[in-house]
Amino acid sequence: MKFTSAAHHEKATSRIGLWLGIAFLTCFVTGLISHTIQHPPSWFFWPSRPVDLYRITQGVHVVSGVAAIPLLLAKLWSVYPKLFQRPLVRSLPHALERGSILVLSGAAFFELVTGIFNVAQNYLWSFYFPDAHYAVAWVAVGSILVHIAVKLPVIRRALRRDPLPDPARRAFLRTTLLASGAAVVATAGVTVPFLRDVSALAWRSATGLPVNRTAAAAGVTFDPAWTLDVAGRMFTLEQLAAMPQTTADLPIACVEGWSQSAGWTGVPIADLLAAAGVQPGTAVKVHSMERDGLYRTSVLPGEHTSDPLTLLALRCNGEVLSMDHGYPCRIMAPSRPGVLQTKWVNRLEVL
């Protein structure tokens, strides 16, 4: 069986493969950054400035994943005639090629499909998404490297300048790029403010500051006898409100890709530590009144505890925090994932 369509030409396949590789690599690197911030090894360092840094990297992660969907479909359409080639396996390199394509296709679909469901917070599976997503990402990258190594001669030949490009092939490539671009524009408003009015498919783009986990879902209620324990020194809410306050415009940047800025007012963590006799720049473990959440504690590294914009926030946009936003106080630190901006704080433990 012969397939002569321009969409199946090796030049079209290689060109789309190049674009898809860039999208996957971008998605992988930014995803690796996010995972390492949440589970940092001892050698890892993540800066607190610029304040939008995590917002940018995680937004790029999700948007590059969205851009990869049309590219992956076009790539599979371009190469599917190879499924009908006979014999099925001609040599060891050919077997490696077919195996890498099978593994790559499965891993890519797993990453993109589960990623889309994750941004919608719709979990139709029993496994823990972050761990599975992280593990399969390495499988996808490994299969890409094997595929490139096997197909490198073909890729190099196909990417050479074509003095007489086929108009049909150019139309197919142009359509693929437009589809990928449209997918980006339709969703990028979750993290790019000026696109929110045109991103029809953007999630969490409504007015107001979104909430992922409510106080009711976390089982948190406020006790009037609440106090904050900072390295053994106790502070009442009235004492915190009487301390010098700092207001900063900081984004909540969620791992699902959406982000939104608000004006946060509270006591700098550095001032709190100093008041408790602890040197600012010391790492602290933040404890929440939430009892069983996966992120009921978080660690603020020294880079953030010394930053004057890392706040124990008491107010949002001039109003006292609502319960869903972490009343009586929450962490708001620059360049941090939203899941690490711990709410309902009751203790700061010096590490």
TrEMBL record:
<protein>
    <submittedName>
        <fullName>DMSO/TMAO reductase YedYZ molybdopterin-dependent catalytic subunit</fullName>
    </submittedName>
</protein>
<feature type="transmembrane region" description="Helical">
    <location>
        <begin position="171"/>
        <end position="195"/>
    </location>
</feature>
<dbReference type="Pfam" id="PF00174">
    <property type="entry name" value="Oxidored_molyb"/>
</dbReference>
<feature type="transmembrane region" description="Helical">
    <location>
        <begin position="132"/>
        <end position="150"/>
    </location>
</feature>
<keyword id="KW-0812">Transmembrane</keyword>
<keyword id="KW-1133">Transmembrane helix</keyword>
<dbReference type="InterPro" id="IPR016174">
    <property type="entry name" value="Di-haem_cyt_TM"/>
</dbReference>
<feature type="transmembrane region" description="Helical">
    <location>
        <begin position="16"/>
        <end position="38"/>
    </location>
</feature>
<dbReference type="InterPro" id="IPR008335">
    <property type="entry name" value="Mopterin_OxRdtase_euk"/>
</dbReference>
<keyword id="KW-0472">Membrane</keyword>
<feature type="transmembrane region" description="Helical">
    <location>
        <begin position="101"/>
        <end position="120"/>
    </location>
</feature>
<dbReference type="InterPro" id="IPR000572">
    <property type="entry name" value="OxRdtase_Mopterin-bd_dom"/>
</dbReference>
<feature type="transmembrane region" description="Helical">
    <location>
        <begin position="58"/>
        <end position="80"/>
    </location>
</feature>
<feature type="domain" description="Oxidoreductase molybdopterin-binding">
    <location>
        <begin position="225"/>
        <end position="350"/>
    </location>
</feature>
<dbReference type="InterPro" id="IPR036374">
    <property type="entry name" value="OxRdtase_Mopterin-bd_sf"/>
</dbReference>
